[in-house]
Design brief:
8 helices, alpha/beta, globular, Undecaprenyl pyrophosphate synthetase
């Protein structure tokens, strides 16, 4: 049986929500501000969404903060983004820890400054024993690179004779990717009006439900999140089965 919008049975809610936070620059430009001014406003939206997910007992929230392609942006904007990233971690990690939220990062850290890398590690260590929402920040992340690195790890194991090529299966590949210990996203949200995944969690999104909205990220609020979840609750997730099979399984 399909769920109805507004269903408050949280056992039916997505366990893992992944979001591409798009529209900060356009939000600022609409207000005749420099593009970079949209990013602090975007941080405020992050706080609202994290609070919402914690209150709604969502297990995992993954946010695409900075893609491996974002280094191509103007150097001044990237520099200010890095400063904002560092400042936000410094200000928010204690708040996350106090609220029993576990913070994790995925992506290649080597391209960040040593100071940012250290703060990432310290933040993860400080919150690693928390048991509430797991907040995953994808920073300098790319789905193609994630899969490529996983293949390299598996190929090395074959080269060393630890496994044979025929031993490679989907489970082995999944376990070599980022966050293998967390459930794959049930719901993917993208703000800002674009309708593509932009190299985000390509393997993990195979059976994810997609929700696109034209609302720019700084305008995101609890009501927007609830609307996305309400839409998710109307979906019939078949995973290759027929509707009749799904109904029989749920009866």
């Amino acid at each position: 049986m399909q769920n109805e919008p507004g269903d408050k049975d949280k056992s039916r809610y997505p366990r893992h929500i992944a979001i591409i936070m798009d529209g900060n620059g356009r939000w600022a430009q609409q207000r005749h501000l420099p593009r970079i001014m949209g990013h602090p406003a975007g941080v405020k939206a992050v706080k609202r969404v994290v609070q919402f997910c914690a209150e709604q007992e969502i297990q995992v929230l993954t946010l695409f903060a900075f893609s491996s392609e974002n280094w191509r942006r103007p150097k001044d904007e990237v520099s200010k983004l890095m400063s904002l990233f560092m400042m936000t971690m410094q200000k928010e990690v204690n708040r996350l820890d106090k609220n029993n939220i576990r913070l994790r990062f995925i992506g290649e850290r080597a391209d960040f400054s040593e100071k940012i890398q250290q703060k990432m590690a310290d933040s993860e260590q400080q919150t690693e024993n928390n048991t509430g929402l797991t907040l995953v920040i994808a920073a300098n992340y790319g789905g193609h690179r994630d899969i490529t690195l996983a293949m390299q790890v598996i190929a090395q194991r074959v080269k060393e004779g630890i496994i044979q090529p025929e031993d490679i299966d989907e489970s082995m590949i999944a376990n070599a990717l980022s966050i293998p210990d967390l459930p794959d996203p049930d719901l993917f949200i993208r703000s800002g009006g674009e309708e593509r995944v932009s190299n985000f969690l390509l393997w993990q999104l195979a059976y994810t439900e997609f929700y696109f909205t034209s609302e720019l990220w700084p305008d995101f609020k609890a009501e927007t999140m609830q609307a996305a979840i309400d839409d998710f609750l109307t979906r019939e997730r078949r995973f290759g089965r027929t509707s009749e099979q799904v109904q029989n399984l749920s009866s």
